[in-house]
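Q: Could you fold this chain for me?
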Amino acid sequence: MPTINPHPLEYLMLSVRRTQFRWDTFRYNNNSNVIRFDNLRSLKLLSTESGFDLSQILGLNDHMPQLVFPKLTILTIYYLPLTTNEVKYIMKAPLRKLDYSGSLDTAHMICNQSTFYLEDLSISINLYNVHILFDNMIGKTNEMFSKTAGIAKVTLTLTWQSNIMDFTDVYWPHLTHLYLNGPFDLYALFLAIPRMPNLVDLLARSTLSYTPDQFLLALHTLKRDNTGPVSSKLKHIKFLKVKGTKQLVEAFDELTWYLPELESVDFS
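A: Sure. Below is the predicted structure, expressed as structure tokens.
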């Protein structure tokens, strides 16, 4: 099998079939069990497969070499399942920016590693075609985002299509940007915002298709049930699939009462 010398590489994109890819491709004139990417600064790992079963790669941990990335600062992973050893080796790099799209389990593994150098962490989880146990999902995300202190920008994108999202037990203290695409209850979402005290940007698309009047009703109920403004850094909110200029002005007035640092509300 031909091999590639990893030493001169500074930027690397791998678009692979997970079942066929092996890091031994980079064992260039190297008989040791360590492969060093000494000059690599940016790495993209992309999957060309869909509907992948993680059980197919469980045995790779026992046979893969140790990977070393002393200068890697930018990492993108797009739906490529990783073994526990791959996550461990990659997360030892001095990463500054990490953009991950894929399964909740792998995202959880990533956040359980050291994130000391990270300045920008983006996690996108697509729950389509997955039997959602929201208690399990919320529990794992709570644990993930309890370990991301010190990261300037922490973004979570959640996409789902079946059950209505339950925000009751959400606690994401270090999350700064949240993007939601799926069925959720507006009132419950607003009640959860104080448990995201560092959130500054919220973009939400509810597939329940709220009318402007229903949106305002949720805000009136929020004001009726709460005694005053909450501790929140939220500055920007954008709701997709909710329209109405008159309602927008009224919504902003209602929301600034609840969210005192709010600067903009957008319906589109």
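A (continued): DSSP finds six helices and twelve strands in the chain.
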